[in-house]
Design goal:
2 copies of one chain form a homodimer. Chain A is about 45% helix and about 15% strand. Chain A is an alpha+beta fold. Chain A has 2 domains: about 1-30, no CATH class; about 40-120, Winged helix-like DNA-binding domain superfamily/Winged helix DNA-binding domain (Arc Repressor Mutant, subunit A, Orthogonal Bundle), CATH 1.10.10. In chain A, the strands form 2 sheets. In chain A, strands 3-5-4 form a 3-stranded antiparallel sheet. Chain A has a two-stranded antiparallel sheet with strand order 1-2. Chain A binds a DNA duplex through helix 4. Chains A, B: One of its GO terms (molecular function) is DNA binding.
Chain lengths: ~130, ~130
DNA sequence: GCATTATTTGCGTGATTGGTTAATTAGTCA
DNA sequence: TGACTAATTAACCAATCACGCAAATAATGC
């Protein structure tokens, strides 16, 4: 992967900014696709949404999104594999928290795209 | 739907993030998931990448990404359904172009997330 | 109309995925 | 150690998906 723009300073923070998807190898492209795939499931989006306010354990998340603990655990495992959430066992429970806030920026960006798209024809469904 | 935030800079990418994913109905959440699903396939990402430089017809895209025209046509149909590309027939050919440049901001943002993740452990695969 | 080229669509197939249930593992406390 | 709770994993099923192939559709020129 070529870092176009490379490292730059944004508001005093050194960031690896403006990486482009161009000229990626097939393996890297698959990584990007897999990242999007992790976000392509309503239940996983709901879980990420629930973690906005802070950490939660598996049982809490299962109750809040009306899923079985087994199901939630698997979703969390997948999210963890892609670095979206961080795992921390405390006692018999396992707490999960967001690993990178930029996920919300991504989701909100997509929300905006969809909303703008619907504003040209019909209102955004379920607003 | 509440408009909040407006333009913001996320890791060097200017984004119109007016909308938040919070408090979405299940149907709206499914829309967001479907949008991500459209981006969760390497071939579709490759097609979007090829359209960076301008419009292309189905045959050209098929040749450039080593896929069958039928396959490419199907991918384009799906991308079109989600408002990612725009269709325009000219002669017997059908040309597609990017409908919204913000897709690239999304993809590049994800590239950055993955690259940062790998920098902590191993180099990004396929650099 | 007929032939040609480009695109789309119908259908079958193998692979992947989300969900459920049950078994297993991990941690705590008596 | 044994009982108990929470989380993970395995096995399985149903649904979805990407792809290949072939048929159908659309647009152009003879």
């Amino acid at each position: 992967m070529r870092a176009r723009g490379g490292w730059r300073i944004i508001r005093g923070v050194q960031c690896l900014a403006v990486i482009s998807m161009e000229n990626l190898t097939p393996e890297a492209m698959e990584q990007v696709a897999a990242y999007f795939r992790a976000l392509s499931e309503p239940t996983r989006l709901a879980i990420l949404n629930l973690l906005r306010e802070g950490e939660r354990n598996v049982g809490e998340l299962a109750q809040l999104c009306s899923c079985s603990p087994a199901n939630v655990s698997r979703h969390l495992s997948l999210l963890s594999q892609h670095g979206l959430v961080r795992r921390e066992g405390r006692g018999t429970a396992v707490y999960y928290r967001i690993a990178d806030d930029s996920v919300y920026a991504l989701c909100d960006l997509v929300c905006g795209n969809i909303a703008r798209r619907y504003q040209r024809s019909q209102p955004f469904p379920g607003v």
